[in-house]
Amino acid sequence: MNWKEKDSGLLLQRSFLFGITGIVICLIPLINKNFLFMNLPMGPLNGVGILLQFFGLSIAVMVMRQRKVAEELQEKAKKMILVLAVALVFFFMVI
Fold first, then answer.
1. Cβ-Cβ contacts under 8 Å for 74 (sequence gap 6 or more)
2. Fewer Cβ in 10 A, N or C end of the chain?
3. In the 8-state DSSP scheme, what is residue 3?
4. Is the dihedral of CA 42, 47, 52, 54 positive or negative?
């Protein structure tokens, strides 16, 4: 089944899961930088986290662009886009 044919609620749920996973993965290098738990390169982990955030953001934008979506789901998609955009700006400024 194509992603565009899926239910908008399910797509927003997946967007949330990808976004929150990306945020948590990007927080790990920040915590490690301050407390130095492991002496490992954390650049690839940041890249994976940012990739997951972009993927969640793209799913939320896809829901916004769909036709005949309920107003409630559009509001949720707008909030998700705002949260993920702010998180991306924050993590780009930290890197």
1. 63, 64
2. N
3. G
4. positive
Residue with tokens 């990808």: 18
Distances (CA, A) of 45 to 18, 27, 32: 15, 10, 11
pTM score: 0.91
**Per this entry, what is the length of the chain?**
95
The contacts of residue 69 (CB under 8 Å, 6+ apart) are 8, 63, 77
Tokens 């920040």 locate to 30
User: Which structure tokens are listed for 23?
Assistant: 């945020």
Phi and psi torsions of 20, nearest 5°: -70, -35
**Could you give the CA distance from residue 48 to residue 57 in angstroms, rounded to a whole number?**
14
Residues 6+ apart with CB under 8 A from 50: 22, 26, 88, 91, 92
Q: What digits encode the pLDDT tens for the residues 46-80?
A: 999 999 999 999 999 999 998 888 999 999 999 99
